[in-house]
Design brief:
The chain contains 6 helices and 2 strands. With 200 residues, it is mostly helical. The protein has one domain.
């Protein structure tokens, strides 16, 4: 009798093992998706905060006519956060096959990096820097670009890594950056202070 049912028993055991494996893989995938979603939501919140804070600090600088060391340090950190978050999620979008290869090298994080380095130079100078007409233009342009990003992120609700709302946000940031570059007829925001150095 056992020999007769041996094939059936093995078949049932295989089915049970496959079911357990499928359930385990599904559960692991859901845990992974949940962890990624939590990180995404936290990072988008940081991104929103960095952009909003930048707006306020740029406004303070333009009103006072000077950049303090602490303001330069703050803007350096915030722009680096923008660079990191947009860059990391652009790379993730490519890795997941949601965007084409090359999307990880977009202009938004590159321009945020240029701003990071600009404010790092000011912070490293270690003194309050009064705005001359050229540096005032740089702050105004940084505010303009930041305002475009702010308009894009302010109305967005990102709820899951599984939907494409975060990818749409990245694409729209890139559109904002391209509009800014085209309006100013430049390749990147660094051209404003490179021109300033050339004039000197």
């Amino acid at each position: 009798m056992l020999k007769k049912n041996y094939g059936r028993i093995v078949f049932v055991c295989l089915i049970i093992a496959l079911l357990i494996l499928c359930i385990s893989q599904y559960h692991t995938k859901e845990i992974y998706k949940s962890a990624l979603t939590s990180k995404l939501i936290a990072d988008i919140s940081e991104l929103r905060s960095a952009i909003s804070s930048n707006h306020n600090v740029y406004g303070e600088i333009l009103r006072s006519g000077k950049v303090s060391k602490s303001q330069a340090n703050y803007l350096m950190g915030n722009n680096d956060e923008i660079r990191r978050i947009v860059g990391d999620y652009s790379a993730l979008a490519v890795h997941l096959g949601k965007m084409k290869e090359g999307f990880q090298y977009v202009d938004t994080p590159q321009n945020a990096l240029k701003l990071t380095l600009y404010f790092k130079d000011l912070q490293d100078a270690g003194k309050e820097d009064f705005l001359d007409p050229n540096s005032k233009v740089i702050i105004e342009k940084a505010l303009d670009l930041n305002s475009k990003w702010s308009g894009t992120i302010s109305s967005r609700q990102i709820t899951s890594i599984a939907d494409d709302s975060w990818i749409k946000l990245l694409v729209d940031f890139e559109k904002d950056t391209h509009i800014f570059l085209e309006e100013n007829k430049i390749e990147n925001i660094e051209e404003f202070w490179l021109k300033r150095r050339e004039i000197k």
